[in-house]
Amino acid sequence: MDLQQQIAELREKFFKKLEDETPSDERGFHPDDLTRIRTRDEYLKRWLEHTDFNVQESVNMLWSTCEWRRKVGANEITEDSVNREYLQDGVVFGYGKDRDGRGMFVIKSKLHVKGVRDFGELQKCIIYWFERLEREGNEQITLFFDMCEAGLSNMDMEFTKYLITLFKYYYPNYLNNIILLEMPWVLNAALKIIKSWLPAKATPKIKQVNKSGLKEFVDPSVALVCWGGENDYKFTFVPEIRNGVNSVNGKLDNKKVHFAEASPLSEQPSSGFGDQSTEDSMIAITPDVLSFNKEGQEIVGTIAVKNQTADKCISYKLKTTAPEKFRVRRSNGVLLPAQQVTMTISLQPGFNLRSLLHNDKFLIMCLPMEDAKMTAEELVDFWKTNEKSAEQHRVWCRDGTGETTSILSPGSSGSERTMDQLHTKLSHLEECHGKLHKELRTLKHVMIISIIWTVVAAIAIVYILRLDIGQIITGDQSCHLHRE
């Protein structure tokens, strides 16, 4: 059974279950969630990948997630419904992208102390950022634990376990990496427990690095100065702009996309041809989603462009959102009526399949030509004058290796009982650390007081001894005078 059949089966079984069963919440499932399931194949694909393509398990997990989303109000959470102070204090926030192009969810560990914040409000804050990052087009995110200057008092296993629970059960195939920057050695025991909560195939996703090693995962131009990078960004909360957001597909409409070679182009079709249907367009593009595969030492994909007209010569050219990542052969040219050309696109050295993003796009434009014998200089001027009215086609990227299995498939997790026991032991360790820290502070005060009393007593003893010695000397002198 191919992927599309599995997606169709998942959708059919889910809605059959909805006909036969009633959700636990009397309000039923949220309309946006149901619309997403009806219309978004990519969303259902994530569930299949997460469960190793077990359709029935995907149905059950999707059902549980819809119940959870209705219970916590995931679709209604905005910055107005979250504790604003938690959004502004910079303990958790979304920032930048890692080298894989995944958005980073930053946890500033030294600013978080267990029990100081209301955990329920903190959970809502995390859901807000997960939903926001997803709406901003991040198919996956990287957890970035900034542990610089953190200690045992900043360790909160309940908080960490909640994050992992979200990835395991409610945000399928959403985790890219877990970066631990400058983790203190005293937290090694906590790291072992965190690893036990993850499936075995997920533990390689944990990247424990220092400031000098961070550049392997985050470009120095993105990394903050406090991480050893070059970016002097200081976190300030900026409310999300929701105008034009499609709440069903979770994508921003009319957002700007930068293609190489020219000024930014709007994702919305410009005046003139714009993005057109296959029947109306002058050229046919195959495929509409570019799949990359390894061929020898190169990672390549191909795009076929065909002139569909019977009487027009057409000039075409290709642009990309990431010119530093791709090398394109035959990126522009002229097509005679019914002629076809194949463009070869290769990943540049230093990039790999994991660096492909869903928002890495190619823009293929074409214009009808009256004179097919234009010189190169004339073609440049021709495009400068007419580019705004060009027909536009967009092609997205994907990894063609088929390695799409989720690293957080629940079926591969360890014993929950063992994890709970480990969690209990670490919580006990936390409690003992707190008591020991308090006792040490008390002991420190006692020692200081003891030292002060000792010094005072020593001074008093010396004073008394000197006084007695003086009296003895005076007495001796008196006796001597009396005998004389």
TrEMBL record:
CDD domains: SEC14. Gene3D superfamilies: CRAL-TRIO lipid binding domain, Immunoglobulins. One of its GO terms (cellular component) is endomembrane system. The keyword Membrane applies. InterPro entries: CRAL-TRIO_dom (IPR001251), CRAL-TRIO_dom_sf (IPR036865), CRAL/TRIO_N_dom_sf (IPR036273), ER-organelle_contact (IPR053012), Ig-like_fold (IPR013783), MSP_dom (IPR000535), PapD-like_sf (IPR008962). It holds the Pfam family Motile_Sperm. The chain crosses the membrane at residues 446-465. It comes from the Eukaryota. Residues 282-401 form the MSP domain. Keywords: Membrane, Transmembrane, Transmembrane helix. Residues 79-235 form the CRAL-TRIO domain. This is Motile sperm domain-containing protein 2-like. It comes from Fopius arisanus. The gene is LOC105273339.
